[in-house]
UniProtKB/TrEMBL annotation:
<dbReference type="Pfam" id="PF00583">
    <property type="entry name" value="Acetyltransf_1"/>
</dbReference>
<dbReference type="InterPro" id="IPR051556">
    <property type="entry name" value="N-term/lysine_N-AcTrnsfr"/>
</dbReference>
<keyword id="KW-0808">Transferase</keyword>
<dbReference type="InterPro" id="IPR016181">
    <property type="entry name" value="Acyl_CoA_acyltransferase"/>
</dbReference>
<feature type="domain" description="N-acetyltransferase">
    <location>
        <begin position="7"/>
        <end position="176"/>
    </location>
</feature>
<dbReference type="GO" id="GO:0016747">
    <property type="term" value="F:acyltransferase activity, transferring groups other than amino-acyl groups"/>
</dbReference>
<keyword id="KW-0012">Acyltransferase</keyword>
<protein>
    <submittedName>
        <fullName>GNAT family N-acetyltransferase</fullName>
    </submittedName>
</protein>
<dbReference type="InterPro" id="IPR000182">
    <property type="entry name" value="GNAT_dom"/>
</dbReference>
Length: 176
């Protein structure tokens, strides 16, 4: 586990699914709610942040979730995928960072960096040689963060938000 002053990074347990549902919905809306229609946002949240979907994802042995927690408040989270849990077919020894989200009031406080460091720690523990992710082409803040941390663009794929087809830039980081 990674700690930084009063922030703890801890694994998400099955008993945390309700908190994950709420945090996932809130952070996604904060990040993208103003640049998407309310209808598309609600469709996406309903299909991706419900109890059934998140319970299955937390139970999947090839996916891992971590919370960033300050005192008793959960302020951000990370989801990484190995093997067949990855959202794209990738070579062996790769790992996907599917989600790093932080509550807006904690932007710029180093929480995303702590979650990113946790992802790299998981990658190293699993002898991963390449970490990859998809980031919306209209999210310059995240693109800058990943480039600053050594990621380079290598492809693109579609991301469906409600009935809106968006483009994600695929980025990768070679670890070994």
């Amino acid at each position: 586990m990674i700690t930084n002053s009063d922030v703890l990074i801890r694994p998400v347990e099955l008993s945390d699914v309700e908190t994950l549902m709420e945090l996932g919905s809130v952070t996604f809306k904060e990040a993208f709610g103003t640049v998407n229609t309310p209808e598309n946002m609600q469709k996406y949240l309903n299909s991706n942040f419900n109890q059934k979907v998140l319970t299955a994802e937390v139970k999947n042995p090839e996916s891992m979730f971590f919370f960033a927690q300050q005192s008793e408040q959960v302020i951000g989270y990370l989801k990484v995928n190995l093997g067949n849990a990855q959202t794209e077919s990738m070579p062996d020894n790769t790992m996907e960072i599917e989600r790093i989200y932080v509550l807006a009031k904690y932007y710029g406080k180093g929480i995303a960096k702590l979650l990113f460091e946790q992802a790299i720690s998981v990658a190293n523990q699993n002898n991963i040689t390449t970490v990859w992710l998809g980031v919306w082409e209209e999210n310059p803040r995240a693109i800058k963060f990943y480039k600053k941390n050594g990621f380079v663009e290598f492809d693109k794929h579609n991301f469906i938000l409600g009935d809106d087809v968006q483009t994600d830039i695929l980025m990768k980081l070679a670890l070994k």
